[in-house]
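Figure 2 data, in text form.
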Amino acid sequence: MYWQWDEIGPTDFSSYPKPTHELFHGLPSNTDAAFTWINGHIYVFKGTEYWRVNQHHHAVEKAYPLSTATHWMHFVPGGGQAQVRVPRNLRNRADLGNKEDEAFKL
């Protein structure tokens, strides 16, 4: 569900909330979460999958949905324990140093 408002003028909320899948073509109903990432893309999550929305066409981009474990979290099985691989450009370097991509055991 979503609400839409005008930051400058008055907004009539009597018709809200509205289903998210009516706003963007190709989304499932009853999504779990959504946000706009720093790259400007909208990401929508439901269960173990996520969708990327093209804001200009108000539709899900081709090749979606994708697995959150495989494509979002870069899940890498290894050594009998699950690991998550964090790309170097997404890490907090103060915590992890300047090493290459690093895997964290769960």
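Caption note: The first strand starts at residue 33 and ends at 36.
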